[in-house]
Amino acid sequence: MCGVFGISGHDEASHLAYLGLHAQQHRGQESAGITASDGGRLVTFRDMGLVADVFSQETLATLSGKSAIGHVRYSTAGGSFLKNAQPLMVAYRGGQLAVAHNGNFTNAAALRRQLEASGAIFQSDSDTETVIHLIARSTKDGFEARVIDALNQLEGAYSLLFLTKDQLVAARDPKGFRPLVIGRVKNAYVLASETTALDLIEGELIREVEPGEVVVIDEQGLRSSFPLKRQAPSRCIFEHVYFARSDSTLFGESVYETRKRLGAQLAKEQPASADVVIAVPDSGVSAALGYANASGLPYEVGLIRSHYVGRTFIEPSQSIRHFGVKLKLSAVRATLKDQRVVVVDDSIVRGTTSRKIVKMLRSAGAREVHLRISSPPTAWPCFYGIDTPSRQELIAASHSVDEIARYVTADSLGYLSLEGLGAAVGDPKGQTFCHACFSGKYLTPLSV
Ligand code: AMP
Description:
The protein is an alpha+beta fold. The chain has helices spanning 13-23, 51-54, 57-62, 108-117, 129-137, 143-151, 195-200, 237-243, 255-269, 285-295, 318-328, 333-336, 352-363, 395-398, 401-408, 418-424, 436-439; strands at residues 2-8, 31-37, 42-48, 67-73, 88-92, 95-105, 156-163, 168-172, 181-185, 188-192, 204-208, 214-218, 221-225, 235-236, 249-250, 253-254, 276-279, 303-305, 329-331, 340-345, 368-373, 412-415, 433-434.
């Protein structure tokens, strides 16, 4: 779970990278970093924390030059430490190199063991470092050829940005698990995980980086190639369900509209005798609107989200998470008192949040609480870059829907079906999206 941003050919490259990361803060809140190139030298600044706290005018002023890449991180592989913050930057025989990665290399551990056996010294525990070692060891001529050589040895999910003193290179894995788009602001090219980053800097969307595409931007302009073995696409369906921001266009579709369709389909599949529909903000809002529209029930604000805390789940430690829900959400009595309430959220992971929300709604006077989830039960961990706990911690891996309803103390619980989810994202046969977190059907070998 990370967001990346890159820009080439702009006098204020690092300032725009800062804004691009800010717009993508929802993709990772543990650490943030930017590497800039002034054409001769790369400079990186990265630290733990939110974008607005990590950077100051002074630090941005040290990141001069016309190209930059940036990264916001939530750890999915490797712990939450500064050494794992990105961009990772090294100097090797080809010069300086920085990399920002969204995704997860599924064969990184095996490759790392091989590399270490032949003398490589790793400086982080992040899977991303593997690609740097492979590039440094490649015997091919030229940076682009070395990147391709490295990528041909890697499996799994990656939307990658590389920066050298004179090139910005982007690559997306052949399955296209994670998003990556190309845009333009004035004469500069921009790369970002989500289109919302382009909107903030008043950039224009050109297109997605295609699955399996490598894009090189330098003084000669932009060139693209498809040097990796073609594979059937399997874009991450959970980006649409939860991860991306509703104002983004993801894989060519509006996230907001897609989430409304998820909610409408949920209303069809899982109706409830109720008086009002409310959302768990922010993740459930678009789906709740879709549910309300389709069911004919009024949509009201029943929970208010404090804007002064981050995502609770995103706090890695369980003790903080425990407090989190109350810090983050408060119930609106005027909406809830004596009402039969449908509450819509996008997913249940451990069940902790839902249980607290149901309790909160009842204490605020709700007569009945009907929980509706705009995706199927999350029963399988993700190995492609979404942080999910181990299978044991996923409540749906070991409990039936009725058991989960009892655990969260809801009067009823209904999930969207996998077929309904597929229909809402325009993939009724389940062929172009990865839905492993719901189905257990992993689409790449998983080596440990
Ligand atoms: P839990 O209390 O573990 O059941 O968490 C459920 C809440 O976490 C839901 O409100 C989701 O919106 C949110 N959520 C689902 N998946 C993730 C994820 N991978 N990272 C952060 N939050 C998530």
